[in-house]
Amino acid sequence: MKDNAYYKDLAARCLMPNYGERDIALVRGEGARVWDADGREYLDFLAGISVNNLGHCPPAVVEALCAQARQLMHTSNFYIIAPQAELARRLCELSFAERCLFANSGAEVNEGAVKLARLYSKRKYGAGRHEIITMRNSFHGRTIGMISATGQEKVRKDFEPLLEGFRYADLNNLDSVLAQISGATCGIMLEPVQGEGGIIAASAAILRGLREECDRRDLLLIFDEIQCGMGRCGKLFAYQLSGVAPDIMTLAKALGNGMPIGALLGGAKTADIFTPGAHGTTFGGNPLACAAALAVLDEMTSRGIPELSARRGEFLRGRLRELMAGCAIVREIRGIGLMTGVELTCPGADVVKKCAARGLLVNCTVGCVIRILPPLIVTEDECERAAGIIAEVIADENELQQQKENQDHNQRELT
Predict the structure, then answer these.
(1) Is 157 an annotated catalytic residue?
(2) Separation of alpha carbons 119 and 269, rounded Å
């Protein structure tokens, strides 16, 4: 029988162990729910790490994929790809952008953003102006280039030598960023909301300050909206919350709602910088992925999904705060839209496991932040159920921590 145990054994024997030990084999999904190979149902409040923003198997996206698969699944970028051109038009209409370039993942379009910023600066100012400032606690991908850009030592560790040309500053500290700017700087890159970094939002004041500084020095401002974009924060794009438009923006994850696609969006300064041969990809923007993304955009805009995300996020955080008021191990509950972090005073790995045992999927980032990223179509009832499970599990963990502290105190008294 092909149950969880079968797939766990198969994965252990045949897959590289880079994701650690996994016990649940998910085989089916619908809306905010998924089922494992044993037939058990879960509420999915991770959504493929902010990918399934329209839920699992949304009919409009499934229908678009099936229709496109019957017509044309792939062709080279040596030719115009009709759905790709349509997708570029839609993204430009909905954002600050004037042109787009497509790839397969977030790391790839972030690599493209770095290349675009460096090429813009080299063409205008010559060699030597190539450094990009990124933020500590950031996450931009797993390629060598993007772990070099990522401001987390745990991501970069063991992969030296890294790609040169990145300096790190503190998010929400303009002086820290300004201190890193030099004659070699060509751009500043940040996530409007750090996801892997623990759900930390950049303030509107900081974004305005960075925009002013970039305009003054002719630096390119790059927003990585791979996790926080596509309706997740209450607007279609997170930059729209502050009114501060970047020069370059990257999208991926929820753009295809499960189909691998990344988009590099460029404003007026960068629209014509890439010339033939400067950048390219075999699969990027293929007909199948673009058909899915077009359906995603239609659903997002016609159904008011970003506004729904804002309402559901407020409801969810409100219930979490009510249910966990006075819980000693809860340091902070924060978030924006349906991007929520519950920061604990202790490691959160056991909380994640215990939530899964109760039928709720979440995860833990930076060691102690429970990251909650449900599909944006989640209902209030589903939010209520999830909040109840999280509160119960954290209450149990709080009691265990208090017992441990009491035992440690008694042990110290004895010695």
Answers:
(1) no
(2) 12
Give pLDDT tens digits for 179-195: 999 999 999 999 999 99
Last residue of a domain, one of 269, 302, 335: 302
Q: Which residues contact 290 (CB under 8 A, 6 or more apart)?
A: 81, 83, 84, 86, 87, 102, 261
Which of 102, 139, 166, 237 is an active site residue?
139
Does the annotation count 381 as an active-site position? no
Fill in the DSSP letter of residue 80: -
Inside any domain, residue 377: yes
Burial of 99 from C-beta contacts in 10 A (0-12 / 13-18 / 19+): middle
Same domain, 51 and 109: no
The answer to whether residues 363 and 237 belong to one domain is no
> 218-227: per-residue pLDDT in tens?
999 999 999 9
Cα–Cα distance measured from residue 242 to residue 147, given in angstroms and rounded to the nearest whole number: 27
Say how far apart CA 42 and CA 48 lie, in whole Å: 13
353 a catalytic residue: no
**Domain check: are 222 and 342 in the same one?**
no
Q: Taking Cα atoms as reference points, which of 326, 325, 332 lies closest to residue 348?
A: 332
Question: Secondary structure of 309-336 in the HEC alphabet?
Answer: HHHHHHHHHHHHHHHCCCCCCEEEEEEE
Whether residues 241 and 369 fall in one domain: no
Of 240, 250, 101, 231, the C-alpha closest to 190 is: 250
Is the predicted pLDDT of residue 413 greater than 90, yes or no? no
> Strand order in 220-224's β-sheet?
99-103, 262-266, 248-251, 220-224, 185-190, 131-135, 166-169
Pick the catalytic residue from 36, 44, 102, 224. Answer: 224
Spatial separation of the C-alpha atoms in residues 111 and 119, rounded to whole Å: 12
CATH of the domain at 290: 3.40.640.10
Provide the domain limits for residue 402. Answer: 4-57+304-414
Same domain membership, residue 313 and residue 278: no
Q: What is the pTM of this model?
A: 0.96
Please indicate, yes or no, whether residues 298 and 308 belong to a single structural domain of this protein.
Answer: no
Beta bridge partners of 134: 168
